[in-house]
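Field log, afternoon session.

UNIT: design team B
ACTIVITY: writing a sequence onto a fixed backbone
BACKBONE:
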C-alpha cells in the first residue's frame, strides 16, 4: 500500500490517519509545534461523528457537560438547552491515542499543520482577534454564556468545579467586561491571558495539488462564534482520507482534487454565511460594520469560485463514490 505522510497531530490529522490505517495504508504522523487549545466545546453531532470514526462509543465519558446556553446578543438574555462536553485539546489527543511513526518514502502528503507548500496563499476575511483567560465563577453551572457588546463579543464556558474559560473577541477583555450586562456578573476572578489568536475566517489557496492535500487548521480557520471548528476538522480529515483511497482505486486524480477543493470551499462558504447572520444582529458600531463587510466579501468570493461547479462524487460512509 502507498505511504502517506500527515504533517500535524490535531483532530483532522488523527481522523485522516485512523481511516487510512484502517484501509491498509502506511501512515506517518509528523508533529507540529503549535500551542494546544485549553478548552474545546464538542456538541453532540461532533461527538457522535468522532465516535463513529474511531469506533469508540464511550470516547467522551467522564467529561464536564454543558446543559444550557445563555445568549445576550443585541438584546435581552435568552436561555436555551445545549448539549455538549468540554475538553482540552491535549486531553482529546490523548484519548484518540495516536503517536507519530516514520518511514522513508511517502506517495501522499496531508498538510494538517503549517508550513504549507510555497505557492499557497492565505485569503483572510476579517481582522478580529481573540484572547482566552482562565476564570473562576461565582456559582457552579453546566452552562455557556455569549454576549455582544459595542466592540466585540464575549464567550464564557464553564469547565466544571467553579472554573471556566473566557474568550473575548474584538476589544480588550477588560473593556468589554466593563460594558457587559451578563457575563461580568457571573465571574468572581480572572487570570492572565493564555494567548491571543486570530478569530477571523481564513482559507488557504490552493487547498490541494498533485500528491498533496491540506486540511484542518492548515487549510481553514473559523470564527469561534459558530462553535463547530472541531466538527469541520473531523469532516475535512474524513474527506481527505476518502480522496486518497479513491485515487488509489484508480479514480481520476484531477477530478478528485477538484471535488476536494470545492467541497471544502462550499463548507467554508456555509460558515461565512452563518457568521454573517450573527454579525448582522450583534451590534451596529464600526467594529461590527467592518467585520460584516469582510464577511460579505468572503461570501461573494466563494460564490465566484464555486459558480457552475457540479460535484462528481459523494461520501457514502467514509468512502467516495461517483454521484449520479
Amino acid at each position: 500500500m502507498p505511504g502517506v505522510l500527515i504533517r500535524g497531530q490535531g483532530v483532522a490529522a488523527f481522523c485522516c490517519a485512523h481511516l487510512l490505517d484502517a484501509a491498509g495504508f502506511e501512515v506517518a504522523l509528523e508533529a507540529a509545534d503549535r500551542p494546544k487549545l485549553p478548552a474545546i466545546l464538542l456538541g453532540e453531532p461532533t461527538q457522535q461523528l468522532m465516535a463513529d470514526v474511531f469506533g469508540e462509543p464511550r470516547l467522551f465519558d467522564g467529561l464536564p457537560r454543558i446543559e444550557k446556553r445563555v445568549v445576550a446578543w443585541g438584546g435581552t438574555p435568552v436561555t436555551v438547552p445545549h448539549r455538549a462536553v468540554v475538553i482540552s485539546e491535549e486531553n482529546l489527543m490523548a484519548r484518540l491515542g495516536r503517536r507519530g511513526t516514520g518511514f522513508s518514502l511517502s506517495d501522499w502528503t496531508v498538510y494538517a499543520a503549517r508550513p504549507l507548500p510555497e505557492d499557497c496563499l492565505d485569503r483572510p476575511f476579517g481582522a478580529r482577534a481573540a484572547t482566552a483567560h482562565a476564570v473562576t465563577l461565582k456559582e457552579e453551572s453546566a452552562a455557556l454564556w455569549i454576549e455582544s457588546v459595542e466592540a466585540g463579543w464575549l464567550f464564557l464556558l464553564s469547565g466544571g468545579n467553579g472554573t471556566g474559560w473566557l474568550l473575548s473577541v474584538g476589544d480588550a477583555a477588560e473593556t468589554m467586561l466593563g460594558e457587559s450586562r451578563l457575563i461580568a456578573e457571573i465571574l468572581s476572578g480572572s487570570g492572565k491571558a493564555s494567548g491571543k489568536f486570530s478569530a477571523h475566517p481564513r482559507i488557504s489557496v490552493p487547498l490541494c495539488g498533485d500528491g498533496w492535500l491540506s486540511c484542518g487548521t492548515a487549510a481553514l480557520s473559523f470564527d469561534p462564534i459558530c462553535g463547530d471548528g472541531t466538527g469541520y476538522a473531523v469532516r475535512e480529515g474524513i474527506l481527505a482520507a476518502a480522496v486518497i483511497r479513491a485515487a488509489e482505486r484508480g479514480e481520476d486524480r484531477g477530478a478528485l482534487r477538484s471535488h476536494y477543493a470545492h467541497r471544502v470551499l462550499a463548507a467554508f462558504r456555509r460558515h461565512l454565511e452563518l457568521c454573517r447572520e450573527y454579525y448582522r444582529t450583534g451590534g451596529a458600531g464600526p467594529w461590527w460594520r467592518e467585520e460584516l463587510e469582510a464577511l460579505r466579501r468572503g461570501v461573494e468570493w466563494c460564490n465566484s469560485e464555486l459558480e457552475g461547479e457540479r460535484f462528481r462524487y459523494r461520501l457514502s460512509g467514509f468512502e467516495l463514490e461517483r454521484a449520479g
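LOG NOTE: The mean pLDDT is 93.
NEXT ACTIVITY: expression trials, pending approval
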